[in-house]
């Protein structure tokens, strides 16, 4: 995989930016000048995103980010791809770099204990450990750790309410729960551990570097991971060693699709899948068909078609 031409860097860093808006122009210019595409989010709590480009281009952007206030020890996960997985370069200003809806939470000061990938199996094999997947339901559906609890959330905003509703169960029989949490790259579990600690629980752990680091570092023969890991780019999913997985993407709802899902009667390329068919109107599906037709025409011409992502129709 190391000889593939496109370098992909998934990164996040919690720090304090006094004026995130002032950082946007320079960061965007650096990425564009170096041919780097992808999306970076800036908020007062830090930076988050995934970018792709040449080795030199990615290194230039990472150097730029490391020079931002409080980012000298920036960490990131890398993989490679045959083709560019992003269409545009975007730097967006947000209230949170990962939205939980807890504005007073301080993920810089209150984070849980990091567990390295090579030590993760021992922690989650302990019968006293409560293992929680902090990702959304469609991500969990294609892969998770053996024995993990699926909160069945549609968005990360739902996690605090879910946890508060389940807390009494976790503390049953007067025990002090030992809670381990994980997500794709680490950012959601980092914030969720800070939240759980703010609720008064202290023995809280999370997988450093997330699932991606685990799949990169832990041999498949020793792995407790089952299935594939959804990623938010054109690879759709990855397997052990961060090899590209077998899933494709529904262009209407952006959910992952297995090979079996493609045979479902409600699957129409670029238009619908069995998960979103009943969520969309025929008018919306007509728009998706036209968008898909235009994309195919552009592909036939050798052009790049960049359509608007229609998340909520």
UniProtKB/TrEMBL annotation:
UniProt domain Rhodanese: residue ranges: 125-223
Spans traversing the lipid bilayer: none
Xref: Pfam families: Rhodanese, UPF0176_N
Ranges of compositional bias, category Basic and acidic residues: 296-313
Superkingdom, taxonomy of origin: Bacteria
This protein's record includes keyword Amino-acid biosynthesis: no
Protein family according to the UniProt entry: Belongs to the TrhO family.
Its job: Catalyzes oxygen-dependent 5-hydroxyuridine (ho5U) modification at position 34 in tRNAs.
Record-given protein name: tRNA uridine(34) hydroxylase
């Amino acid at each position: 995989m190391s000889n593939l031409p496109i370098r992909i860097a998934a990164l996040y860093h919690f720090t304090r930016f006094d004026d995130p808006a002032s950082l946007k122009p320079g960061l965007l210019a650096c990425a564009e000048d170096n041919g780097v595409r992808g999306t970076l989010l800036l908020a007062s709590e830090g930076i988050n995103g995934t970018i792709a480009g040449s080795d030199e281009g990615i290194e230039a952007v990472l150097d730029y980010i490391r020079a931002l206030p409080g980012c000298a020890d920036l960490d990131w996960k890398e993989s490679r791809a045959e083709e560019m997985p992003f269409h545009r370069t975007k730097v967006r200003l947000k209230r949170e770099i990962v939205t939980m809806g807890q504005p007073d939470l301080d993920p810089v000061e209150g984070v849980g204990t990091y567990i390295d990938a090579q030590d993760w199996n021992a922690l989650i094999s302990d019968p006293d450990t409560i293992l929680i997947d902090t990702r959304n339901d469609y991500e969990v559906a294609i892969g998770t750790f053996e024995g993990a609890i699926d909160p069945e959330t549609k968005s990360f905003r739902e996690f605090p309410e879910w946890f508060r509703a389940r807390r009494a169960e976790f503390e049953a029989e007067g025990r002090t729960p030992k809670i381990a949490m994980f997500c794709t790259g680490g950012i959601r579990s980092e914030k969720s551990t800070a939240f759980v600690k703010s609720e008064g629980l202290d023995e809280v752990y999370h997988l450093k570097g997330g699932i991606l680091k685990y799949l990169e570092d832990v041999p498949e023969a020793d792995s407790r991971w089952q299935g594939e890991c959804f990623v938010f780019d054109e690879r759709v999913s990855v397997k052990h060693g961060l090899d590209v997985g077998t899933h494709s993407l529904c262009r209407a709802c952006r959910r992952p699709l297995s090979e079996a899902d493609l045979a479902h009667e409600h699957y129409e390329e670029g238009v619908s899948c069995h998960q979103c068919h009943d969520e969309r109107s025929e008018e919306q599906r007509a728009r998706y068909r036209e968008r898909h037709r235009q994309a195919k025409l552009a592909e036939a011409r050798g052009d790049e078609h960049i359509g608007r992502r229609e998340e909520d129709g």
